[in-house]
Design a protein that fits this description.
alpha+beta; 5-stranded mixed sheet
């Protein structure tokens, strides 16, 4: 994996469909070998920063676990992410991720 945790979290933020989780608000500590992050989801918008704080849930994983969230791969998420706290946060976040394979074909608009 050649993506840093920051890049993966930015990528996740792009793929979260805020219209699917307008009422979702939670804080998660993400414990990675490269460092710790705080992930905040408020009204469906995903923000993150380095460090930890009091949170609704703590996820301990590697970068591959974060990529599994983006891929909506529940089997890998269960194997790679250890959760402490409210486990529904991860499930609801994954439900809002847009899978790009569903959009293989699209019309290209030409001038």
């Amino acid at each position: 994996l050649h993506m840093t945790p920051d890049m993966i979290l930015d990528y996740l933020g792009i793929f979260v469909d805020t219209t699917k989780i307008p009422d979702l608000t939670f804080t998660a500590n993400i414990i990675l070998p490269e460092g710790n992050y705080v992930l905040r989801v408020k009204n469906g918008v995903l923000l993150y920063q380095k460090d930890t704080q009091d949170a609704d849930v703590t996820w301990t994983t590697k970068r591959a676990g974060l990529l599994s969230i983006i891929q909506k791969n529940a089997e890998n998420v269960a194997a790679l992410i250890q959760q402490e706290g409210d486990e529904t946060c991860l499930t609801r976040l994954m439900d809002a991720v847009t899978v790009t394979s569903e959009y293989k074909y699209f019309n290209i608009i030409e001038p």
